[in-house]
């Protein structure tokens, strides 16, 4: 059977993360053996509208398969217009995921905006396998407090011994936390030299990477989850190429030195 | 897989196209290597030309209105209802109570039969099509100036020009094959002068880019003439031998100095003089123009001004020279040639003068007075004078100006029949919808902007019960008592060739990959590449002095920006075909309004923000794009998007001579949503 | 195995083969050589087609599957490939097939491509009459076919020398013994002569070698080239190695998921949701097209990304010099 034929998946839960973002939980048919690693993605179909790549935001250590959908175009709008019980299509998992075997025990996770959805998979994986890791910190920033995802989980992460720093670009009366860039958080967190996983807009990635290297992180230990337009997910359609690499197979997680020139 | 040679459906370039058909579906397309103009090349739309043909939205069955919905009808029901309704209205309100709007996307044969339907069947000269909205000024002005309203040379001859003046044409986006030849000339050393308020791709490649205030073209063209005459660059020999009326023009432009023109148009005096010298001293100069010249209340005068320019410099009748109107639709030239016009029969024969000839040919009495133009028909509908309309392959709700008013007019009609391949904003309002065959599903001919008459060939069957329009028109003609028993499109062309001198020698057995360029008066005639080489159809060409007049609706305190509407490379007109083509839709999925950085800053608008564009007619919501290709004080809205229809904003102010609306200048304002 | 096919029996062979598969052969449509289903027309071998026969392995538009919805549940039907024989494919295009086999064969192997590939018999033709724009010898991809054919024909006096390249080719010879004659030494000698002549007829186009193009790429003013590009996509659509595609749905609630040929020269190709575009200028996109052909494909597959067919320069709307990459004016 062609690798282009999706598996039908049912939406079993929808949570509103922010005004334009839903957290959806999908049920994969029993006969389909679906296992994945943090940092991988799937191609989601809305039949009649098409397919688009969405990072898996849940951790494979937990039962629920979750995706974070943000309104960005026709297909994501189509997903957002769906209801619990509706059937979507799914192909995957695709991509290399975070290279946990190569990464150090100390981990810094830095996310900007909707890019954090990818990183949550890694955060919850670490929470569930906490003893396998050392000093772990999370630095996450969004535009405003309303745009922050997964707010109900921050406390749980702190309790799991992860140093969590949250910031917004623009504060308001309801927000009592940090206002400023993600790079600013790096000075406030308990950062131990190790590996970093970053996802967000190119400017944010570069400034965070620079700061981390100042603090002694090795360039080859800094990993970036790259966003690219994707269609096939299997390295054939050539849309997602970053230089000679396919973001869907050689990525989306790349070491910083490999992708610095295109950021 | 079968491969069928045909002609592209999109623009007036008229590229050869090979359609790939498998299992009754168009699965691809490729260029025609031996085509005399396209020579194995296509633009992105051409490569994808077959995709919309098998789209699930295709109309498949005749539909008749039942209250708010449409129900399926048989062809017999739909056609008899249509014929009876139009006939009844004619009987009650007079023949001029009905009208026919034909399709510039239809074949020559269809256009001929539809205008015959209007005249011989319905006894009205109320027949028109969208040339009214694009090159009606060309037909009017050049009929007067040259005796023939078409491009005077072949497209390929542009490669041999020494200087090309491109005015009001975003050629790389609207007519890519023409642009290819212009760029060839440029590579060979020709000088390009681009005149366009926007900094288009061609402008960036030009030697000189002049940016006039929209609607001030007569001023700077007259100033060019002024400089050319002042510096004795005009072709006295040619003027004396082949033209009349130069003196009046010389007088008229004597006061049109570059300073004066600069004050009106905003073009630098030095640039005007430079342009005049480049064009005036060129051995072979050509002028290429499109909507930026025609879509004004002074459109006809604009074209005459350009005609004055080429006549004064003797740039006509030789390869590499000429006046080149770029026709938009792939068969708007043909629709004009076929006389789908209220005042002309096929062959540009005037309705008052040639009536007897056609009465004889068609064996029936014909109406004697010229009919109404398209927008006049809509006004007449508003006034209750026009009550029935048959619209074929056109979408006036989207393409005509002031769509609010268009809606009102169409709502006033007692009977509206619309024939199309897809449901549109116009079919929504119809009483009868007739499903038509697309260009891939019928035989016929198209005539490109370089007057090349070319075959299209039926490559697959139309979907469902859809039919070619010559069958629909023939059926209606017969129901109205006019014999119309044509076995094929070829037979229709045989009839056309007996009635139109330009098509006299056009027979299907002669139409190979080269087609035939008119005039082609007889079977042995090879067709004509360059017009007016020896003489003009009127003998000597005519100069006519034209004067600058301000556009109708200028920017003011309430509406401080000047709005122009226009096209994109990736889409075609009302988007019914291109928005159903995957890659084209992917390239430009949504409308944007182009705004200059200065205006964006003033209005605190960022690129990507949703804004509201308003004029006195209406408003639309769309995304803003800040680009330095727009001059300060101007905004640009594309015409392809029904969710933000540009024509909700434009006005029905017409050029008194050609009745074209002033799409290119409206007063507008813009604010954040 | 070898045999000789007299010229006047070619049509009979194709007719016989056409009884159990769709035979695609080059024929004339309005004077142009095109590959289409053969129904007895004159076979046109005077030059290669403008559109490569690779379109039968990677169609411009292809149905990946049909989806039908029933009470919210979907079922999918995948079309199966037609049995086809492509007659007259030349060396340059065969080298492109080799490249696509490698590219689509990298894990996970592309099912729709290989379904067609396995169902297609390739009867190749040694190119004895190279075209004006051809430079296969400078790219190492012709004029002689080396590999991948099921049967290879070389046009010699009075007919064709036929050489098998696979079991399928052997089957063709074995199943039509009445059409083929024994191959003689003289036939082989003729083949060598004919190919030697073809090689010398091919203009030596050193500037079109991959090495020289790479040099040109270093020096090229991509911005200036990008300014001239007219976004037609023609170079991609006529290139036998180009294979970029996009996936689109047509039809709600029932419909088809289609795979359509795409081109990296269009802005939307790399544009992401939200509007950001890693290749924002036409110059960068043009540069990427060249990098893919002259660097990335050779690196990944060990095969040439350009087979020297010259089609891109024939169809470029901007008339770019596709090898020197110099901006005229």
Counting DSSP H or I runs of 4 or more residues, the number of helices of chain B is 24
Strand content bin of chain A: 25-35%
Q: Write down the overall geometry of chain A.
A: globular
Largest sheet entry of chain A: 7 strands, mixed
User: What is the total number of structural domains of chain A?
Assistant: 2
What is the tally of beta strands of chain B? 26
**Overall geometric form of chain B:** globular
Mean pLDDT of chain B: 97
Q: Largest protein interface?
A: B-C, 49 and 46 residues
Q: What integer value in Å does the Rg of chain B equal?
A: 24 Å
Distance between the termini of chain B: 51 Å
In terms of quaternary structure, the protein is heterotrimer
CATH homologous superfamily identity of the largest domain in chain A: Nucleotide-binding domain of ferredoxin-NADP reductase (FNR) module
Structural class of chain B: alpha/beta
CATH topology category name of the largest domain in chain A: Rossmann fold
Are there runs of chain B of 5+ residues with pLDDT below 50, and where? none
User: How many angstroms separate the termini of chain A?
Assistant: 38 Å
Helix content of chain A: 10-25%
Textual characterization of the structure:
Chain A has 263 residues and is of the alpha/beta class. Chain A has 2 domains: 7-94, Beta Barrel (Elongation Factor Tu (Ef-tu), domain 3); 107-227 and 248-262, Nucleotide-binding domain of ferredoxin-NADP reductase (FNR) module (Rossmann fold), CATH 3.40.50.80. In chain A, 19% of the residues lie in helices and 32% in strands. The radius of gyration of chain A is 18 Å and the shape is globular. The mean pLDDT of chain A is 95. In chain B, the strands form 6 sheets. In chain B, strands 5-4-16-15-14-6-7 form a 7-stranded mixed β-sheet, sandwiched between helices. A 6-stranded mixed β-barrel of chain B has the order 21-25-22-24-23-26. Chain B has a 5-stranded parallel β-sheet with strand order 10-9-8-12-13. In chain B, strand 4 (63-66) and strand 5 (69-72) form a beta hairpin. In chain B, helix 3 (108-121) packs parallel to helix 21, helix 9 (217-230) crosses helix 13 and helix 12 packs across helix 13. Chain B is globular and about 70 Å long. Helices cover 33% and strands 22% of the residues of chain C. With 329 residues, chain C is an alpha/beta fold. Chain C contains 11 helices and 11 strands. In chain C, the strands form 2 sheets. In chain C, strands 1-9-8-7-6-2-3 form a 7-stranded mixed β-sheet. A 4-stranded antiparallel β-sheet of chain C has the order 5-4-11-10, with no helix packed on it. The mean pLDDT of chain C is 94. The chains are: A alpha/beta (263), B alpha/beta (673), C alpha/beta (329). At the A-C interface, strand 4 and strand 13 of A face strand 4, strand 5, helix 3, strand 10 and strand 11 of C.
């Amino acid at each position: 059977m062609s690798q282009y034929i999706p598996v039908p998946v049912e939406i079993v839960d929808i949570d509103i993360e922010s005004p334009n973002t839903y957290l959806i939980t999908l049920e994969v048919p029993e006969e389909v053996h679906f296992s994945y690693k943090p940092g991988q993605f799937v191609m989601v179909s809305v039949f009649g509208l098409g397919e688009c790549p969405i990072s898996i935001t849940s951790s494979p250590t937990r039962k629920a398969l979750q995706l974070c959908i943000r309104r960005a175009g026709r297909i994501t709008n189509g997903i957002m217009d769906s209801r619990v019980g509706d059937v979507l299509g799914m192909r995957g998992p695709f991509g290399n995921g975070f290279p946990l075997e190569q990464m150090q025990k100390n981990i810094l996770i830095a996310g900007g905006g909707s890019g954090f959805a990818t990183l949550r998979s890694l955060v919850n994986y670490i929470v569930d396998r906490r003893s396998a890791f050392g000093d772990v910190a999370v630095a996450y920033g969004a535009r405003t407090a309303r745009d922050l995802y997964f707010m109900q989980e921050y406390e749980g992460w702190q309790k799991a011994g992860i140093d969590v720093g949250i910031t917004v670009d623009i504060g308001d009366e309801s927000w009592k936390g940090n206002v400023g860039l993600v790079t600013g958080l790096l000075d406030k967190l308990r950062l131990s030299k190790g590996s970093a996983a970053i996802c967000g807009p190119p400017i944010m990635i570069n400034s965070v990477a620079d700061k981390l290297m100042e603090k002694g992180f090795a360039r080859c230990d800094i990993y970036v989850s790259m966003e690219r337009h994707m269609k096939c997910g299997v390295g054939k359609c050539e849309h997602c190429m970053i230089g000679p690499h396919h973001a869907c197979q050689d990525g989306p997680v790349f070491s910083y030195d490999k992708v610095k020139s295109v950021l | 897989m079968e491969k069928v040679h045909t002609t592209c459906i999109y623009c007036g370039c008229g590229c050869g196209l090979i359609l790939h058909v498998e299992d009754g579906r168009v699965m691809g397309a490729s260029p025609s290597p031996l085509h005399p103009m396209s020579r194995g090349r296509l633009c992105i739309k051409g490569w994808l030309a077959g995709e919309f043909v098998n789209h699930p939205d295709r109309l498949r069955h005749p539909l008749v209105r039942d209250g708010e919905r449409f129900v399926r009808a048989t062809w017999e029901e739909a056609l008899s209802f249509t014929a009876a309704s139009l006939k009844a209205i004619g009987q009650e309100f007079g023949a001029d109570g009905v009208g026919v709007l034909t399709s510039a996307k239809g074949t020559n044969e269809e256009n001929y039969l539809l205008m015959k339907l209007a005249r011989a069947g319905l006894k009205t000269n109320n027949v028109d099509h969208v040339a009214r909205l694009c090159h009606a000024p060309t037909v009017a002005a050049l009929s007067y100036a040259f005796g023939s309203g078409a491009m005077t040379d072949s497209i390929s001859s542009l490669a041999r020009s020494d200087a090309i003046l491109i005015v009001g044409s975003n050629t790389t986006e609207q007519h890519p094959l023409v642009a290819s030849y212009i760029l060839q000339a440029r590579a060979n050393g020709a000088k390009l002068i681009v005149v366009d308020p926007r900094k288009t791709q061609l402008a960036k490649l030009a030697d000189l880019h002049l940016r006039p205030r929209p609607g001030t073209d007569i001023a700077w063209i007259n100033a060019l003439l002024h400089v050319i005459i002042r510096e004795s660059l005009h072709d006295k020999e040619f003027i004396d031998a082949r033209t009349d009326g130069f003196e009046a023009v010389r007088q008229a432009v004597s006061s049109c100095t570059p300073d004066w023109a600069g004050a009106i148009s905003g073009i630098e005096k030095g640039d005007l003089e430079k342009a005049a010298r480049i064009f005036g001293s060129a051995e072979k100069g050509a002028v290429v123009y499109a909507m930026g010249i025609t879509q004004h209340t002074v459109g006809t005068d604009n074209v005459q001004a350009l005609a004055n320019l080429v006549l004064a410099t003797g740039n006509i009748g030789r390869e590499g020279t000429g006046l080149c109107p770029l026709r938009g639709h792939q068969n708007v030239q043909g629709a004009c040639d076929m006389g789908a016009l209220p005042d002309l029969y096929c062959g540009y024969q005037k309705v008052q003068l040639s009536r007897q000839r056609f009465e004889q040919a068609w064996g029936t009495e014909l109406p004697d007075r010229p009919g109404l133009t398209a927008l006049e028909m809509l006004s007449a509908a508003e006034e209750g004078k026009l009550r029935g309309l048959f619209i074929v392959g056109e979408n006036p709700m989207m393409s005509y100006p002031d769509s609010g008013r268009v809606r009102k007019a169409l709502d006033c009609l007692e009977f509206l029949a619309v024939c199309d391949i897809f449901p549109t904003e116009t079919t929504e309002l119809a009483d009868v919808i007739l499903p038509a065959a697309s260009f891939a599903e019928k035989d016929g001919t198209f005539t490109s902007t370089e007057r090349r008459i070319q075959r299209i060939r039926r490559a697959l069957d139309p979907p469902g019960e859809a039919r070619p329009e010559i069958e629909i028109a023939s059926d209606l003609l017969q129901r109205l008592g006019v014999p119309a028993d044509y076995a094929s499109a070829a037979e229709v062309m045989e009839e056309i060739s007996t009635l139109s001198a330009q098509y006299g020698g056009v027979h299907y057995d002669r139409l190979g990959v080269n087609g035939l360029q008119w005039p082609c008066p007889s079977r042995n005639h090879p067709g004509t590449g360059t017009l007016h080489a020896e003489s003009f159809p009127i003998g000597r060409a005519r100069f006519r002095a034209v004067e600058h007049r301000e556009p109708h609706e200028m920017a003011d305190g309430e509406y401080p920006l000047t709005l122009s509407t226009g096209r994109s490379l990736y889409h075609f007109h009302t988007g019914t075909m291109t928005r159903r083509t995957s890659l084209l839709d992917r390239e430009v999925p949504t409308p944007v309004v182009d705004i200059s950085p200065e205006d964006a800053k003033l209005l605190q608008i960022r690129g990507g923000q949703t804004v509201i564009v308003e004029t006195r007619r209406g408003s639309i919501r769309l995304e803003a794009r800040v680009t330095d290709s727009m001059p300060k004080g101007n905004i640009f809205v594309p015409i392809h998007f029904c969710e933000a229809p540009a024509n909700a904003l434009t006005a029905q102010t017409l050029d008194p001579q050609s009745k074209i609306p002033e799409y290119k200048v409206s007063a507008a304002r813009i604010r954040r949503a | 195995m070898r045999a000789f096919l007299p010229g006047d029996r070619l049509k009979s062979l194709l007719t016989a083969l056409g009884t159990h598969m769709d035979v695609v052969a080059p024929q004339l449509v309005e004077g142009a050589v095109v590959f289409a289903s053969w129904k007895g027309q004159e076979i046109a071998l005077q030059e290669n087609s403008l559109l490569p026969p690779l379109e039968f392995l990677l169609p411009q538009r292809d149905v990946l599957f049909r989806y039908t919805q029933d009470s919210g549940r979907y079922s999918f039907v995948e079309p199966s490939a037609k049995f086809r024989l492509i007659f007259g494919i030349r060396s340059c295009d065969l080298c492109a097939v080799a490249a696509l086999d490698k590219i689509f064969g990298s894990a996970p192997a592309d099912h729709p491509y290989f379904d067609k590939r396995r169902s297609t018999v390739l009867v190749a033709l040694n190119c004895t009459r190279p075209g004006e724009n051809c430079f296969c010898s400078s790219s190492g991809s012709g004029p002689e076919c080396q590999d991948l054919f099921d049967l290879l024909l070389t046009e010699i006096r009075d007919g064709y020398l036929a050489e098998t390249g696979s079991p399928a080719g052997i089957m063709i010879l074995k199943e039509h013994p009445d059409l083929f004659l024994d191959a003689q030494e003289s036939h082989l000698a003729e083949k060598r002569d004919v190919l030697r002549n073809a090689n010398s007829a091919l203009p030596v186009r050193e500037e079109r070698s991959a090495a020289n193009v790479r040099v040109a790429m270093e020096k090229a003013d991509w911005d200036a080239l990008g300014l001239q590009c007219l976004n037609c996509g023609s170079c991609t659509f006529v290139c036998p190695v180009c294979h970029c595609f996009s996936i689109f749905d047509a039809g709600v609630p029932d419909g088809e998921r289609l795979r359509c040929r795409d081109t990296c020269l269009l802005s939307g190709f790399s544009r992401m949701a939200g509007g950001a575009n890693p290749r924002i200028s036409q110059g960068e996109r043009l540069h990427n097209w060249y990098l893919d052909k002259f660097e990335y494909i050779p690196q990944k597959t060990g095969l040439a990304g350009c087979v020297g067919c010259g089609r891109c320069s024939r169809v470029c709307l901007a008339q770019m010099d596709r090898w020197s990459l110099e901006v005229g004016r």
